[in-house]
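ingest -> validate -> predict -> emit
validate: passed (alphabet ok, no gaps, 301 aa)
predict: started
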Amino acid sequence: MNHRLKEHDYAGRGFYFITATTHPRRNLFSVIADYKTHLTRLGEIVRDEWLKLHREQPLLEQQEFAIMPDHFHGTIIATAPLPKPIGYYIGNFKGRTRQAIRKLMGDPAFQVWSQGFFDLVSLDADMFHSFRLYTKDNPRRKQLRDENRALFQKIRDVTHARLPQNRHWTAIGDLALLDYPSLVPVVVHRRRPQEETEHTINHFADLAASGAILIGGFISPGEKEVARRIAAIPNARVIYLLPHGMAQYKPRGKAVDRIANSQTLVLSGFDDEIPETPINYDNCHFNNALAKAIAETTTAV
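emit:
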């Protein structure tokens, strides 16, 4: 199955994040060890055929790719208008791979890929850069998740003395962070003088360095800066309170390490069907109120 932007010309210039999965999510292509992929013979075929794509169509510039046990990620740029849509070339890549693997296996009916593929169109350079980083970091994240599986399971219908009982709570991470005596809600308003904002950000960073656990949605630019500074503090701990549901949420980047080290708890008091985007500002404001209520409630309740 492919996801398509109706307004995008898939034969024009573009930046793409491609995902294709094995059928039916079998571990065929690699094993993960030492936070790296170690390719099987089938994975080597996938690699070789992917690298041929540029030779088939020089206008396709390949960037990062990751051959995971049961799926493939690749980032690719169409540097100029293509003779045919990008899907044509990805289909050729999958077809050549399937043919070579069937020949190796001696089985003309061997099922390699699930039907279709997923593509995400990058809308700007920052988004494409995040796709590249996500792809490059995929093996490490998978091993961390496998080694700390319990911490990465979504816990539904969470109950805790600090959590308002009129919400359905879902969590990923170490719930013990809610037991810590000092939780500090993070709210940095957008429309404040720069000097005041910087002072507020420094204040929250100092609290995190001193051992307080910060809690909030980290949505505004100032709050995002607080989150960035927390990530640079080795032992800082944080509770992310999402202003949306968790149906599509997946930890990425440093969040994976911090969850694995019991430094981050991700919480949502919203139903799964509440989407991540577009940002619902009413949800964000309500989320700030939830953060304050949780922080002000003691564990002795």
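Helices lie at 41-51, 53-56, 86-105, 125-147, 194-209, 221-231, 254-260, 281-296.
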